[in-house]
């Protein structure tokens, strides 16, 4: 690893210590990148898609956890309501609801949200360099893969990277308080630590693989939701037509009435 001013052990998002800066430096030497977080937002991917693009494979494992305050706000009529996360179908449905909610009520600029999601979907479609080998190892052969863990209890924030063979270090683990969001990577005061010991890497990797094996594949569901159930991929022509209809509403109304009475 080449040394630079961000080559530190702890990252709190103070000046020159943001987790975003550290990722941009570290991912330049990374082949494989695994992300385990309770919350994953497009804002985080927008911040890092240019650094993730050269990687051979990125896997994202998200929890479906929502805190009690949000849970009760979503389900005010039944505070004892239990969501069944045990079946894959219900896990995908819950993932869908959370993703739609994130996109529709996102506070980030629309342009950043759109770019982040489109890049994310582009990577979900793209093959990794060795798709057949990846499939033999239980992957889907794609450059980016996302799975949802069927439990509300996952609260980890762990980022695991495997360096290229020529690098003097084997890999890294970054863990702490930051979720994969713009706030977690840059805005909030956070506390994260980077581990480079081979044993730490192997332990974190083994735990990730254990959770990954039991998680539900949602890459295709992600693409379907964003393209069919949110406003982001509505065609510009459709938006233009709706805008014209709204602007000339009286004229359109009169034309429809005329056609109906003719």
Question: How do the helices and strands line up, and which of them pair or pack?
Answer:
Blueprint: E1 10-11, H1 19-26, E2 30-37, H2 42-52, E3 57-63, H3 68-74, H4 88-104, H5 110-125, H6 131-136, E4 144-149, E5 157-163, E6 171-176, H7 182-187, E7 192-195, H8 198-214, E8 216-217, H9 219-229, H10 236-247, H11 249-261
Parallel strand pairs: 2-3, 3-4
Antiparallel strand pairs: 1-7, 2-5, 4-8, 5-6, 6-7
Helix pairs in contact: 2-5, 4-9
What does this structure look like?
The protein is of the alpha+beta class. It folds into 2 domains: 220 residues, Endonuclease Chain A (Endonuclease, Chain A, 2-Layer Sandwich); 27 residues. It is 47% helix and 16% strand. It is built from 11 helices and 8 strands. Strands 1-7-6-5-2-3-4-8 form an 8-stranded mixed beta sheet, with helices on both faces. The longest helix is centred in the middle third of the chain and has 17 residues. The termini are far apart.
């Amino acid at each position: 690893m080449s040394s630079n001013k961000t080559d530190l052990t702890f990252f709190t998002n103070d000046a020159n210590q943001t987790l975003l800066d550290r990722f941009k430096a570290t991912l330049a030497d990374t082949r494989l990148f695994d992300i385990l977080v309770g919350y994953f937002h497009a804002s985080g991917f927008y911040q890092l898609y240019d650094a993730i693009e050269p990687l051979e494979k990125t896997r994202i494992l998200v929890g479906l956890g929502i805190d009690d305050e949000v849970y009760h706000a979503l389900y005010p009529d039944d505070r004892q309501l239990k969501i069944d996360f045990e079946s894959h179908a219900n896990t995908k449905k819950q993932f869908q609801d959370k993703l739609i909610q994130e996109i529709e009520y996102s506070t980030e600029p629309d342009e950043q949200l759109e770019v982040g999601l489109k890049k994310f979907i582009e990577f979900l479609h793209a093959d990794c360099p060795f798709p057949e080998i990846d499939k033999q190892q239980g992957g889907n052969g794609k450059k980016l893969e996302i799975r949802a863990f069927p439990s509300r209890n996952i609260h980890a924030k762990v980022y695991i990277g495997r360096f290229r063979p020529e690098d003097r270090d084997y890999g890294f683990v970054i863990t702490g308080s930051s979720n994969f969001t713009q706030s977690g990577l840059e805005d909030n005061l956070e506390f994260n630590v980077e581990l480079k010991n081979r044993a730490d890497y192997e332990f974190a990797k083994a735990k990730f693989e254990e959770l990954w094996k039991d998680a539900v594949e949602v890459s295709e569901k992600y693409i379907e939701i964003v393209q069919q159930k949110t406003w982001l991929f509505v065609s510009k022509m459709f938006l233009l037509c709706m805008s014209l209809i709204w602007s000339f509403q009286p004229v359109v109304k009169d034309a429809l009435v005329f056609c109906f009475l003719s």
